[in-house]
Amino acid sequence: MxxxxxxxxxxxxxxxxxxxxxxxxxxxAGAHGARVVVNDIGAALDGRGEDKGPxxxxxxxxxxxxxxxxxxxxxxxxxxxxQRIVSVALDAxxxxxxxxxxxxxxxxxxxxxxxxxxxxxxxxxxxYGSFNVSRAAAPIFKEQQSGSLVHxxxxxxxIGNLAQANYSAAKLGLVGLSxxxxxxxxxFGVRSNxxxxxxxxxxxxxxxxxxxxxxxxxxRLQQMTPAKVAPLAVYLLSDRADSVTGxxxxxxxxxxxxxxxxxxxxxxxxxxxxxxxQIADHAMPALSASFHELDVSSDxxxxxxV
Length: 306
Fold this sequence. Notes:
Layout lengths: L10 E4 L5 H12 L3 E5 L13 H12 L3 E5 L6 H15 L4 E4 L14 H29 L2 E6 L2 H4 L6 H21 L4 E9 L13 H11 L7 H8 L10 E5 L2 E4 L17 H12 L9 H4 L6
Parallel strand pairs: 1-2, 1-4, 2-3, 4-5, 5-6, 6-7
Antiparallel strand pairs: 7-8
Helix pairs in contact: 1-2, 1-8, 3-4, 4-6
């Protein structure tokens, strides 16, 4: 346990914690005094298969370091599984103080080739999964008048990326979910925030490298380890962050960024209203100066990580 145990006495649940970002968050939470529920079904990157080993291995890592942890092997994709995951925390430790909704899968495909199954499965794990786990915990947080939720979003949703309509929709949907939870539950002392992580992990190791630009992007990502994301998550789970809610953060190696949220940037009006022709002749030319480019994440993050 670290000298400054920011999560001392808290029970923290981390989904998808068998590897990558989730593992590092679980390990750091344990090192900062939390009793940790390590949830992972041990599935392949596309969500198929099952291996109980990853969750158990992370539990052993936490215990070997002097911490306390238990494993949960249920899937977040169905409400019943999420309820069982939350029940593991209550059965093992008698309470639940924070959740990191990190579980995810990828099934990349260009939109005109994406199947309904590829669309549905990704949303079920990322968006439905985060709702299911958060909703299962909501009555507990309401009753105890406290709780912190950290949701893993992505610049694929916040900005955009090719061949990820399912993933992008789920990750941007998470931003709306987090904001709604923050609004609805602030009177109960419940906080909800998002992190968009840049980190080389199994989740992004499937990125297609078919150009020098993509090779350069992957090389930059490989410098960013999952361990860089964990400190912000641990902070947001702690009481030191009791005034932080409804925000979107990004971690990019040693950088922590705060993302903007959609707000009006320009307006036009006519006292008599608009005809389609007037919109074409006057409104769009005026508004177009503030149009966003059709860019992707790598177009925005052009500087090298520090």
